Backbone:
């Protein structure tokens, strides 16, 4: 993992290593998807547990949606079924 030597961050620094930081956020979003979280739940979880600003999580989420349209269509359908029938 890349660390910010100026500030001793234990995670990649957005300002010093933006590419690594965005990749880390993407990985965390993917972990939220495995837990069948919707975007709002993911944003709240990353803000609370990883101190990721909501605007960053939302931006990365939107880019993932653009790049993976078929996946997200199926994912949102699964979330709808989960809400209708209860936990999958």
Residues:
């Amino acid at each position: 993992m890349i660390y910010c030597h100026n500030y001793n961050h234990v995670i990649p620094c957005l300002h010093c290593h933006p590419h690594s930081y965005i990749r880390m956020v993407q990985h965390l979003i993917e972990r939220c998807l495995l837990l069948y979280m919707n975007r709002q739940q993911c944003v709240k979880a990353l803000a609370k547990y990883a101190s990721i600003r909501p605007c960053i999580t939302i931006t990365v989420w939107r880019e993932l949606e653009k790049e993976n349209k078929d996946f997200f269509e199926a994912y949102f359908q699964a979330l709808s079924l989960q809400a209708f029938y209860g936990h999958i």
About this structure: Residues 65 and 72 are 6 Å apart (CA to CA). The chain is about 70% helix and 0% strand. The first helix runs from residue 18 to 34. The mean pLDDT is 87.
